[in-house]
Amino acid sequence: MTDRQYLEGSQGTYFNIPGAVASWSSPGNWAYTSGGVGGAPVPIATDATYFDDNSAATCTVDVAANAGSVTMVGGYTGT
Known about the structure:
- The chain is mainly beta.
- Helices cover 6% and strands 18% of the residues.
- It has 1 helix and 4 strands, in the order αββββ.
- A 4-stranded mixed sheet has the order 2-1-3-4, with no helix packed on it.
- The relative contact order is 0.26.
- The model is unreliable at 1-6 (pLDDT under 50).
């Protein structure tokens, strides 16, 4: 089992995905699984966030972002 498979679906674990607006504050940019459907809550201070090869190319941090961790994995090439 890969790290990604283990983490997917875990409570408080969110993956950045491409959305209509590539901003941290948009629930459409967060999913419970890598490459999943957007609409997960915007991460809070206790959540783990992941940016991988299924993430938006760029994520604009347009609010005071909070997350327990921010991890870039699996070929993420954005900024």
